[in-house]
Structure formats: structure tokens, C-alpha cells
Amino acid sequence: MLDTLIAIGVSLFAGGLVFCMALLLLGAHKVPLHFGYGAILGGVIACSFVFGPRDRAGLMIVGGLIVVWVLGTTGLYLSRDQIVLHPHEHHSAVAGYAPRKTD
Q1: Alpha-carbon distance 62 to 45, whole Å?
Q2: pLDDT digit string (tens) for 18-33?
Q3: pLDDT at 85
Q4: Are 42 and 14 in contact (CB under 8 A)?
Q5: What DSSP line would sit under the chain, residue for residue?
Q6: Is the pLDDT of residue 72 over 70?
Q7: N or C: which end of the chain has fewer CB within 10 A?
Q8: CB atoms within 10 A of CB 95
């Protein structure tokens, strides 16, 4: 029972971290969110399977990651039209600084 709870927690935590990385890719390089999420989490799953332990707990974590990967990528793909990031409007680097007017 404890192995199952740990696998669920680790899978959700890893999915959240990968989602944050995918948001950074979207903001910095305009990579669609479902592509970034799917590619990064797919790499995490592959590395976990190859380099991770092959015991019951390790395979449960990989299975949980696969479920989070499929559901997350599908959800992000289906909601791709509603995801819009607006660029930040930075007018100056220093607060209260007004640029000089040149005539």
C-alpha cells in the first residue's frame, strides 16, 4: 500500500515539474505545451526505465509516470486552443525611472 502511495506522489510531482519546464519552453522558444511536456516526460520515463531499479516499486513509479504522461499530454493537446500566454509589458528596468526626452 505504501509503495502505491509513493508511486502516485512521485508521479504527480514529476509531472508537475515537467509541466513547469514545458511552460518555460513555451515562453522562451514558443514550443507548444503538449510537445514540450510529452517530450520531456517521455525522456524521464525512458531514463527511469533504463537506469532505475527493476523491482516492484521502480516499475510502479514508471507505470505511474506513463499514466501521468498519457493523461497530461492528451489534456494539454485537447486544451491547446485555450492556452494563451501574453508577453510581459516591461517599460523600464528600474521602477520610477523615466527615460529622457530627446528633441
Answers
A1: 6
A2: 999 999 999 888 899 9
A3: 74
A4: no
A5: -HHHHHHHHHHHHHHHHHHHHHHHHHHHH---HHHHHHHHHHHHHHHHHHHS--SHHHHHHHHHHHHHHHHHHHHHHHTTTT---PPP----SSTT--PPP--
A6: yes
A7: C
A8: 6
